[in-house]
Every structure is written in structure tokens, then in C-alpha cells.
Design a protein that fits this description.
By secondary structure, the chain is mostly beta strands. Helix content is about 0%, strand content about 50%. It has strands at about 5, 10, 15-25, 30-40, 45-50, 55-60, 65-70, 75-80, 90-100, 110, 115-120.
Length: about 120
């Protein structure tokens, strides 16, 4: 499956952004989706994941209560709504897909988008 992430940009602290990740796969609902992020000089970090039917969602503690993952299987798209952004949220954000159970480890994901840059100024 091919993934195309979009929606990043430069915002100020406290602002909101919505990232999108469009998938090429017709059986999109078969894939568990996740968002990761990677800041310069740091390892790729789990942000959140959503099951194929959207019924199970899990977030990293660092974003819980501020970020929301959703998906529209009719549009083959997963979203990451980011509110109350902080400078420490600055990173390249990646969407990822896998078949099977949802996971929080990047190495468990088979398919990756190209990443979209999110920069939050203070």
C-alpha cells in the first residue's frame, strides 16, 4: 500500500493542524494505521494508532488529550488532528500501516508515508 501524508506546516504554539494520510489500497479498512514523528537527532516516536474499523485508538502519553486520530475508510484516509500544539511537537510526522494487531513500535509497521514537517514556534 502506498501512503501519502500531507497537512504539515509552520504554526505558533497553541495553534491546531490536521494531518491527512491517503492510502492507495482499496482494502484500506484491513490496515491498522498509526502516526509516528521524528525530531532532529531523535528516534522515531510513536504518536497514536487506530484499528482498521476505527473502533480502537491508542495514544502516546505526550499527546493524549491534545491529538485525535480518525479515519474515513470510504476515502482511504487517516487523519491526525493536533490541537494545543507545543514547540516540542516539532517533528516530521509519518503515517504507517500494518496488517494484524495494532502496535506502537515503528519496526512492526510495513508501510510508510513520506512524512510531513510540522514546526511549532514559541
Amino acid at each position: 500500500v502506498q501512503l501519502q501524508a500531507s497537512g504539515g506546516g509552520l504554526v505558533q504554539a497553541g495553534d491546531s493542524l490536521r494531518l491527512s494520510c491517503a492510502a492507495s489500497e482499496r482494502t484500506f479498512s484491513s490496515y491498522n494505521m498509526a502516526w509516528f514523528r521524528q525530531a532532529p537527532g531523535k528516534e522515531r516516536e510513536f504518536v497514536g494508532t487506530i484499528s482498521g474499523n476505527g473502533g480502537w485508538i491508542y495514544y502516546a502519553d505526550s499527546v493524549k488529550g491534545r491529538f485525535t486520530i480518525s479515519r474515513d475508510n470510504a476515502k482511504n484516509t487517516v487523519y491526525l488532528q493536533m490541537n494545543s500544539l507545543k514547540p516540542e511537537d516539532t517533528a516530521v510526522y509519518y503515517c504507517a500501516a500494518r496488517v494484524g494487531y495494532t502496535r506502537t513500535y515503528a519496526g512492526d509497521y510495513e508501510y510508510w508515508g513520506q512524512g510531513t514537517q510540522v514546526t511549532v514556534s514559541s
